[in-house]
Amino acid sequence: MKNNLKEFRFFETYETASWLEHAVTSPDTFIELPWEDDDVRKSLCKYSKVSVLEQYIFSMLAVEKRISYRKNIYDLMPDDIAEFKSIFSEYGIELRNENSFNPFGDEYDEYDHFYLWFEYQEDSFVHLWEQITEEVFHLLFSNRGFLLDFNKSLSTYIENNSDIVPANYRNDNGKIKRASNLPAWVKKAVFFRDQGRCVFCHKDLSGLLSTDRVIHYDHMVPLNRWGVNDPSNIQLLCEECNLKKGGNHLSTSTRYKEWW
Length: 260
Ligand SMILES: [Zn+2]
Hints:
The chain is mostly helical. The protein has one domain (about 1-180). About 40% of the residues lie in helices and about 5% in strands. It contains 9 helices and 2 strands; from the N terminus they run ααααααααββα. It is globular and about 75 Å long. Zinc ion binds near residues 238 and 240.
């Protein structure tokens, strides 16, 4: 059996999540995704285990880090390198041998070479960003308020750039077609995240407490409103609430039950 357990280390996880909560309200930030890649464009249309949200987190992180390391080229000190070395070792990420890293020859000045060190070790940084992305994704996927903001901005971006949707996945009106079925792994994840309850009325949909359960997997941002077939856009509803919401409303609920 595949062991799916991950160990979290929470390096920059919360600050990245909090930064993205603000950034995501701007649809323009979606320009950072590598839309020239067919797989990225298809992931809008058919449920992909590498979700659009995960790709967004990684792209934003990579762009932001590259800019900030370059901008602060003279601010970052040897301490930063030492700190990164310990983070890399904690995550089990290997670094390139530094024997050939001597950017200044005899004029070697350890106080201003962070950016050069970053460029030399860039592959390892990319690995680190992938790890951070997994952790941030785990955190944000359980935050439906964030997911709604994410899908709202994404839908606005798609409406303004509808040619990023591959032609064979589009309806006559240009919007994304409904996928033929919702994969079992999406249902399982959403059911677990929403704790087997309708997110609006908290009706139990587990089948343990009632026999009349009808489960609806709902698009927070409907396809009709330029929504996507991505796990981040799906929530659990009971039949009554789904009928009330209809096919044209963008909504979720962030109410929760206290631990005790
Ligand atoms: Zn309900």
